[in-house]
Structure formats: structure tokens, C-alpha cells
Automatic annotation (TrEMBL):
Organism: Roseobacter ponti
The protein's name: 3-hydroxyisobutyrate dehydrogenase
Catalytic activities: a (3S)-3-hydroxyacyl-CoA + NAD(+) = a 3-oxoacyl-CoA + NADH + H(+); 3-hydroxy-2-methylpropanoate + NAD(+) = 2-methyl-3-oxopropanoate + NADH + H(+)
UniProt cross-references to Pfam families, sorted A to Z: ECH_2 (PF16113), NAD_binding_11 (PF14833), NAD_binding_2 (PF03446)
Domain 3-hydroxyisobutyrate dehydrogenase-like NAD-binding residues, every copy: 506-631
Enzyme class: oxidoreductase
Keywords linked to the UniProt accession: Branched-chain amino acid catabolism, NAD, Oxidoreductase
Domain (6-phosphogluconate dehydrogenase NADP-binding): residue spans on this chain: 352-503
GO BP terms in the entry: L-valine catabolic process
Domain Enoyl-CoA hydratase/isomerase: from-to ranges: 13-331
Example of a GO MF term: NADP binding
Length: 641
């Protein structure tokens, strides 16, 4: 194959990209050839290490060959792209986990697909000409080939910045961000490669390394952390728009050229990955969810058209000039049911799931599991159903032969009663996963009973409300053993965007109680502030612009603003139809005070929030309204009311 040279030279397996006139862009057959060589050399004792380089001075590899993707996509062949990405990602994963040293020499441009080949090995060498970037948002993709792994691991909020702006990193920047290991003068590379071929080992590279100097990005880290710390792209752009520095103006200009859908999903993927559950397999899976849909549902065809077909550089993005709805982000990042990404040992097994409690939260959660290909059977005392979910007449029938039983129930007393029934019916080793919000004591009691019955148990209450349940963007706060958490993790990935293992049984409930005590108190303060601003004659939109980018920043203000027409769409824009009902906030705040009393914790703000919400629900008109409906309550009241 003239585009790539694969050979053994001495003790080195050698891979050289040979398309310098095309900036060594990665074609499909090149991917397959690299993977075949890696498989062949893995157990070959005559191969000590793998050395990857490229011809030409301009680029190691400036990305994938996207012209063919466009031609196939315009013709309606979306499966071509899915096959390409699945095979490419499998090759990327093999480089990452290869049992022998993989040494790459990254001159000039290393972008997109080049990052997947050159930046997952054990020794990543950069030089004075190196420029590394993830420019995918500019053509309607997201950073992929495992790039989101490095973005999630980058210091501070550098990952969000690099992933959305396509900023080109120098050698020093790449080392700072975790995309490279050593800076070596490019004049020394041929001699180092020859030494590796003739029996030298990778340790010799360290001796040849030079000081890369100060990373240019380091001078902007404070601004990057401040502006890119928001939950959404809108948060980021709002923050930047209130900064009159050259950095902020240049960054806004860069963001304005990118696909809003791609940027929104990039931020979402990085946020989902960041934390203790981060693995390359998870990063590639999330990337594949997007890329497998990019031709058919995303901006990729338009992005390629504008960049390399018509070359007008004027793409017409789907969501230009407005926020990307959370449902659109969720649609692009839902698990792939048909032909999911298959890496070695990572195929999700189809599980038999029993789901007890098909209410406003449980029904969409169960439906998402069914859409992901699981066999889901549900039970609800009210007789409610969920799309794709079969039903039975008893909780015990749901639990019989199930691999997992999930509960979404109103309170701890009901959980105890249901557990007593289903634990007897469940098979040994199965998982009981309680996603209800209940008292810590109930969670721990059921955990003990499950352990006695030879079953796994995790308490995993959720945050995100009805919208998050429908969109599959819930956050799970899990308590239980590591084995229970790992057993539940594939299901968390279907139903939500993030799962945090908080500790042993009951820790999930403790985290939820603390989280919602903060939420209740901050929502009251946010509503009070808007009511005060009204009486002071301050425009709500201007107040939002100030508070959302300064020290008053909070989730209640920025993501769930209680003022209609201000900020992202929220229940306030729908007549305060509940996303999270006020009576549920009363329940959760009551649990927080019950827990506080049990451990002798002083929580006066939590107690006051409970008293206000209880009055709102029981004596005013708050029942059946969203908890953010506190705003019209305060609007109608004076100080002496």
C-alpha cells in the first residue's frame, strides 16, 4: 500500500504514514492495516517496540480522509461512516492498551484521527514544529478517537477550551494538556529511530529530551478556568461576553465558527467522563454515540460541505444563534442499540430488568432501558405503563429471574415493604438497584437484607427531574459495594449522564439529601433576589447577565432560572408545570432535617427552607407546581406579609 509503509526493521515494528501531499490524512484502509500489524506483532518476540512516524515536514497526520464520508453520506449510506469509526476506535484502543512500547514522532500538524494514532502510545514525542489540535467541532463532529479522554484529564477547564475552540497546541502546550510526553529536537529524531531499530530501548528517549519552555496556554489558564467552568456552552459564551479582554474576544470568535450541537455535546461528554469512572472504553463509547449519528442527524455533512466541497467556509448549522435543547444533546448521546461499538471485552450484555414504580420518573427511565435493548418488565400499583416495557401484576413477578430489579418509590417505608417481597423472588447474585429518594436508615436496612439474601444492592437516588429522566441525562449518587456499583454502571450509562460512587450503602441517599438541601435553599434565595430586583426597578435580563457570570452563579440561576423568558428554557417558561414538584422538595428537605437530627447537625438554612416550602405547599397554592414557583409567591408578598 503506497499510503503507508508497515515493516519490521531490526527489533522495531515500523509504521510510516506516506501521504505527505495530503498531510498524511488517515484513510480507512490505512486504519485496517495499522490494526492488522498491531495484532501480528503483539505476540512476536522479535518485536521489542512499535515506532510510528510520517513522511514530510508539514504533518504527522492532519486528520481523517473525510471526503469519502461526505460522498457516502450524501448518497444516504450512513453505515459506511459507522463502520469506519467503529474500526478506527478499535484500533485506537489497541494502541492505548498495547503490551509493548508504542513510540510516536509527531512533527507538524497532528489533528483529529492523527491524535488517535499518535497520542495514545506510551512515548509521544513532539518537536519544534509540532501543532496538535482537536478541530472536529468546526466540521460538525466532536473530538473523538479517544481525544475526549485526554480532554477530560487535562488540567482545570483546558479540556473544554481545547475541545470547542480547535486551538492548536505547541509542543509545550501538548505536554501541559497531556497529549504528549517529551520534547526532542527534530534534528535528533532520525538517529533516535535508528537506535530503536537496532536494539536501543525507549529509555534513551528521556536522555535526548529538552526543556519545552513555558506553555503559551499557561498564561491563559485563569481565564480558561473562569470562563469554561459553566455547565453549558451558553454559560461559557455568556461569561466570555462579559470580558472585554483580547483573549475573550478571540475565543468568542473561534466559538462562533463551530457547530453549536457539536460544542454542546463536546462539553457534555467531557463532563460525563471527568471523574473516577473515566476509561478510554467509556470515552470511545460516548464518542461513537455521536459520530454514529453525525451524518444522519448531526451537522457533519454541512460542515464538510462548507470546509472541503464548496469551500465557502459558511456552514449553516442546525442551532445557529440559539441554545441547543438538552433533548437534542441527549438524542446524539443515547446508547447505540443496533451495532454498538465493540471493543475487546466491552460489549454491553442484554439484561433482564424488573422495574418497580412507573411514575413520572420511573416510566421514562424504564423506557430508555428498553430502547437500549434490555428486556424490561414493569410493575406499578397504579397500573401505569412505559413504552417498550411489559407489565406484571405483582412486584415479585417482576423480580423473578431478573438480573436487575430497579425501584423508583415514594418513601423508605414502601421501599422496605417492596424489598421484603422481591428479595425472596430474586435469584442469587442479582442486583437490587433503588433509585428512590428515601431516608438513609431505610437504604441501609434494605442493603443488609439484600446481603443476607446473597444479593447485590445499591442505593442510587437521582438528580435531574422529569426532563432528565426522559432525556437520559440524570445524575446518579450511588451507595453500596464496588461490585454493586460496577454491576449497575452500564444501566447508569443508559439512564443518565453521570454516576458517582459515594461510598457504602446509604451514601447515595446522604449525597442526595445534602444536594437537595442546597438546591432548596439556593432556589429560595434566587427567587427572593428576583423579587427584590423587581421592586428595585432592575431589569431581570440584566440581573441575570450579571449574576450568572459573577459570584451569584448557581444552578438555580443559570440552568433552572425561575424567571420566565430569562436564561435557558425552564419550567418557569411553561407556567411552572413541574420538572421537580414543590411537594417533592418538601419531602427531600424533610429527609435532610430528619438526617440532621439523627446526627446532631446544625442546619438552620435547611430547616428554614423546609418551613417555607411546607407553607407554600400546604397553606398556599404551591402543590402541583414546580419548586421554582416560589418566585411568583415572593412577587406577590411584601416584607410584612
Amino acid at each position: 500500500m503506497s499510503d503507508i509503509s508497515i515493516r519490521q526493521t531490526g527489533v522495531a515494528g515500523r509504521i510510516t504514514l506516506m501521504r505527505p501531499d495530503a498531510l498524511n490524512a488517515l484513510a480507512y484502509d490505512m486504519c485496517l492495516a495499522i490494526e492488522a500489524a498491531l495484532d501480528r506483532w503483539r505476540d512476536d518476540d522479535s518485536i521489542a517496540h512499535i515506532v510510528i512516524d510520517a513522511e514530510g515536514e508539514r504533518a504527522f497526520c492532519a486528520g481523517g480522509d473525510i471526503a469519502e464520508l461526505y460522498a457516502k453520506g450524501i448518497a444516504g449510506d450512513f453505515d459506511y461512516g459507522r463502520r469506519f469509526w467503529a474500526d478506527e476506535y478499535r484500533m485506537n484502543a489497541k494502541i492505548f492498551s498495547y503490551p509493548k512500547p508504542v513510540i510516536s514522532f509527531l512533527q507538524g500538524f497532528t489533528m483529529g484521527g492523527g491524535v488517535g494514532i499518535g497520542c495514545h502510545g506510551s512515548h509521544r514525542i513532539v518537536g519544534q514544529s509540532s501543532r496538535i489540535a482537536m478541530p472536529e467541532c468546526g466540521i460538525g463532529l466532536i473530538p473523538d478517537v479517544g481525544g475526549t479522554l485526554m480532554l477530560a484529564l487535562a488540567p482545570g477547564r483546558l479540556g473544554e477550551y481545547l475541545g470547542t475552540t480547535a486551538t492548536r497546541m505547541t509542543a509545550a502546550d501538548a505536554i501541559l494538556a497531556g497529549f504528549a510526553d517529551l520534547m526532542i529536537d527534530e534534528a535528533a529524531w532520525p538517529g533516535l529511530i535508528e537506535a530503536l531499530e537496532t536494539g536501543g530501548d525507549a529509555a534513551g528517549l528521556e536522555a535526548a529530551a529538552t526543556d519545552p519552555g513555558a506553555a503559551p496556554l499557561q498564561t491563559h489558564m485563569a481565564q480558561i478556568d473562569r470562563h469554561f467552568g459553566g455547565e453549558t456552552v451558553r454559560d461559557i459564551m455568556t461569561s466570555l461576553s462579559h470580558d472585554d479582554s483580547d483573549f475573550a474576544r478571540d475565543t468568542l470568535r473561534s466559538l462562533s465558527r463551530m457547530s453549536p450541537l457539536s460544542m454542546a455535546c463536546t462539553i457534555e461528554v467531557i463532563h460525563r467522563l471527568r471523574g473516577p469512572s473515566l476509561t478510554l472504553a467509556r470515552a470511545l463509547d460516548l464518542e461513537y454515540r455521536f459520530t454514529s449519528r453525525a451524518l444522519e442527524h448531526g451537522d457533519l455533512l454541512e460542515g464538510i460541505r462548507a470546509a472541503i466541497i464548496d469551500k465557502d467556509r459558511k456552514p449553516v448549522w442546525q442551532h445557529a444563534g440559539r441554545s441547543v435543547p438538552p433533548a437534542e444533546i441527549s438524542k446524539m448521546l443515547m446508547p447505540v442499540r443496533d451495532n454498538p461499538l465493540q471493543l475487546e471485552g466491552t460489549v454491553m450484555k442484554r439484561a433482564k430488568i424488573g422495574f418497580i414504580g412507573l411514575g413520572n420518573m420511573g416510566a421514562p427511565m424504564a423506557a430508555n432501558l428498553a430502547r437500549a435493548g434490555h428486556e424490561v418488565t414493569g410493575f406499578d400499583t397504579a397500573g401505569t405503563t412505559a413504552e417498550g416495557v411489559s407489565t406484571t401484576q405483582t412486584a415479585a413477578a417482576v423480580a423473578t429471574d431478573a438480573d436487575v430489579v430497579i425501584c423508583m418509590l415514594p418513601n423508605g417505608a414502601i421501599l422496605r415493604n417492596v424489598a421484603e417481597e422481591v428479595l425472596r423472588a430474586m435469584k442469587k447474585g442479582a442486583l437490587l438497584l433503588d433509585c428512590s429518594t428515601v431516608d438513609v436508615e431505610a437504604a441501609r436496612a434494605v442493603a443488609a437484607a439484600a446481603e443476607d439474601a446473597g444479593l447485590l444492592f445499591a442505593d442510587a437516588p437521582v438528580s435531574g427531574g422529569i426532563g432528565g429522566a426522559s432525556a437520559g441525562t440524570l445524575t446518579f449518587m450511588a451507595g453500596g459495594t464496588e461490585a454493586a456499583f460496577q454491576a449497575a454502571s452500564p444501566l447508569f450509562d443508559v439512564m443518565g449522564q453521570k454516576a458517582v460512587h459515594c461510598g457504602e450503602a446509604g451514601a447515595g441517599q446522604a449525597a442526595k439529601i445534602c444536594n437537595n438541601m442546597i438546591l432548596g435553599a439556593t432556589m429560595i434565595a434566587t427567587c427572593e433576589a428576583f423579587a427584590l430586583a423587581d421592586k428595585l426597578g432592575l431589569d431581570r435580563a440584566r440581573m441575570f447577565d450579571v449574576v450568572s457570570t459573577s459570584s451569584g452563579y448557581s444552578w438555580s440561576m443559570n440552568a433552572y432560572c425561575p424567571a420566565p423568558g430569562i436564561g435557558p428554557k425552564s419550567p418557569a417558561d411553561n407556567g411552572y408545570t413541574p420538572g421537580f414538584a414543590s411537594e417533592l422538595m418538601v419531602k427531600d428537605l424533610g429527609l435532610s432535617q430528619q438526617a440532621a437530627e439523627a446526627v446532631d447537625a446544625d442546619t438552620p438554612m435547611g430547616a428554614l427552607a423546609l418551613a417555607l416550602y411546607r407553607q407554600f405547599v400546604e397553606k398556599e397554592d404551591g402543590k402541583g407546581k414546580d419548586f421554582s414557583a416560589m418566585l411568583p409567591r415572593f412577587e406577590a408578598r411584601g416584607r410584612s406579609s
